[in-house]
Design a protein that fits this description.
This protein has helices at about 20-30, 30-50, 55-85, 100-110, 125-140, 150-180, and strands spanning about 5, 90, 95, 115, 120-125. By secondary structure, the chain is mainly alpha-helical. It has one domain (about 5-175). It is globular.
């Protein structure tokens, strides 16, 4: 599972450059897991016939996949690279790593609204909130005409924020799961 944006040991954190922020977007969007996951989502959209104007068969799937990849790529670029660079915010998720499940869940969800500056100070997460809004606005320009509404744009923005929240939960708990899976089996 690609996890380029998680910091597991907050004590050894250094700020990252603008170039690195853009490199993180590139790595995320070219990772085989990301590409496969988006392909699976497009396949589910094909099965449900979401956006019927796209049609079916390979051409319909290609339109769904292309739109989904563009939506995700633009949102990733805005929230990981463009806005963090302009606002001097760190796009990485800093794992809490300790505490109860509920405490860590609340922490992970709060990171949608709170982040670190490049200097390490806590501040509002404008990069995610505004970045996803801009990405939703851009997405509205190439979605089918019937979907170019304020309501749909707000829906895209809300969906992006919800997906970012779920991703934060995965970033919080995946390192623990990974460590447990990699523990060598005890000898009998």
């Amino acid at each position: 599972m690609p996890n380029y944006l998680t910091v597991e040991n907050k004590r050894q954190v250094t700020s990252i450059s603008a170039k690195t922020k853009f490199k993180l977007s590139e790595k995320t969007m070219t990772d085989p897991v990301t590409i496969s996951f988006l392909g699976t989502l497009a396949l589910l959209g094909q099965a449900r016939n979401s956006n019927p104007s796209y049609g079916q068969e390979l051409a319909g799937y290609a339109k769904r996949y292309g739109t989904l990849y563009a939506d995700t790529g633009i949102a990733t670029l805005m929230t990981t690279s463009v806005f963090p660079t302009l606002l001097h915010q760190d796009p990485r998720y800093f794992q809490l790593g300790t505490g109860s499940f509920w405490h860590r869940t609340k922490y992970s969800l709060s990171r949608i609204l709170v982040t670190r500056s490049d200097a390490g100070e806590i501040q509002p997460n404008y990069s995610v909130v505004v970045g996803n809004a801009v990405a939703a606005g851009i997405a509205s320009s190439y979605h089918p005409a019937s979907q170019r509404t304020v309501g749909n744009t707000l829906g895209i923005w809300g969906t992006n924020l919800a997906l970012n929240s779920l991703c934060n939960m995965a970033k919080e708990f995946w390192p623990d799961i990974r460590r447990k899976l990699r523990k060598p089996a005890a000898l009998d």
